Amino acid sequence: MNKSIGVPAGFRDILFDEALARRRVENALAEVFAAAGYGEILPSSMEFFETYVRTDQSMSDRVYRFLNRNDELLALRADFTLSVARIAATRLIDSPLPYRVWYCGNVFRKADAVRGQYKETAQVGAELLGVNSARSDAEMLNVALRCLSALGVNDVQLHLNHAGILKGIVDTLALAPDALRQVKSEIDRKDARALAERLRQLGVSNDVTKQLDFLSRAIGGEEVMKQAKEIIVTPESSVALNELKKAAEALKDWQGEITFDLTEIDEMEYYTGIMFTFFSPKLKSELGRGGRYDGVLAHFGAPMPAVGFSFSMEELARLI
Description:
Blueprint: H1 16-35, E1 39-40, E2 46-48, H2 50-53, H3 57-60, E3 65-67, E4 73-76, H4 80-90, E5 99-108, E6 120-129, H5 134-150, E7 157-162, H6 163-170, H7 177-188, H8 192-202, H9 206-215, E8 219-220, H10 222-231, H11 235-249, E9 257-261, E10 274-279, E11 288-292, E12 306-312, H12 313-319
Parallel strand pairs: 1-5, 7-9
Antiparallel strand pairs: 2-4, 3-4, 5-6, 6-12, 7-10, 8-9, 10-11, 11-12
Helix pairs in contact: 1-5, 1-12, 5-11, 6-11, 7-8
């Protein structure tokens, strides 16, 4: 095929069977969301670039941006959560809380096409805004699991973490941004040896080193939580551990597999509470992820708590 009439690297056309599978996914999940009281919204595919700068500088580096005829710097939608936050702070601000919304559409992010990463992907997800409680976290998790069940995806592996566990520890160190990124990267890679050397170079105390070393290896079942309770002694982190335990207990009727993965790092850097990731043994990539992000809406002038999740439409379509 003549390259000039193809599509750019990192983009693709969706045809026939896959298009039908995506439609089936969206229709099935629309019924789940409606039954749970979530209303559909269709955020604009275009945002002001400022939307990403004000909340997450790392995300701003991955968006497609350009000037319009009025010399306004715009960006293609790269994240639904930020679009929902903007809508909540503007279009919904006079509506009674809480807001329960769901969405389905494409996001655009700069990615490495050489490594097989797509720059345009489809997401479907939901957000609950205006309430902060263990019950709302449990609601969000249960809605997500009902979505998967509606698609016949019952062999789900759920990984749970809480952003406050790591945050409580590193906040006591006052690390420079570069040093903090390196520490987080080594925990995320589960590289205990590199982490130990990094902490030694930074002059981190033995008690904090012990806690961070544990986090770099803390992935498993109930035994991980038992060990964490003994090793994690930073007050804020201990509170976060208790919140994580409550979230897991709220899923006691769910028969799937729960893994506590305290090594999981928030790449978006906007989660403030529980974080969760969904996997299927049939796929190499994750199905989706979500969590609590209570600080995001303050950037739009309407501070309120929020929790949400999104699934990869590509991955869900492969399973049905």
